[in-house]
């Protein structure tokens, strides 16, 4: 893994998150979980480079995010949609996602999990978190579309500081 500065990052994050998708991984090298996510973004907030992600409390990865201070966002490229499909549809409570997908974990110098297959990994520290609240929606049609019958609970939003940017060469 090679480290870049945030200012060296040239990715179109709209495409990377929305089309390529990402793996959100939290935990320790001994016990971690990962899940596919396609909601989020990046920018500057509070004078820091940040990412923001949204995780439903029923997801197994949520427990790991809540327990720790850090997490990674890994971008595998569109060629790895098969990995994303498994990590987005199967729970780590029921399967070993690393074994099921062939993911090859790498431990960062700060002790977080990245993957050999990742072309890009953002290593992040939690700064802020809050539940999405139905009474705060200004466009109430979004509630039915994304949280209506059978869609699941409201997400928790995390704003995380991007502390390291890793690329695999």
Automatic annotation (TrEMBL):
Belongs to the flavoredoxin family. PANTHER family: FLAVOREDOXIN-RELATED-RELATED, HYPOTHETICAL CYTOSOLIC PROTEIN. It comes from Phocaeicola barnesiae. It comes from the Bacteria. This is Flavin reductase. Gene3D superfamilies: Electron Transport, Fmn-binding Protein, Chain A (2.30.110.10). Residues 19-169 form the Flavin reductase like domain. One of its GO terms (molecular function) is FMN binding. Pfam families: Flavin_Reduct.
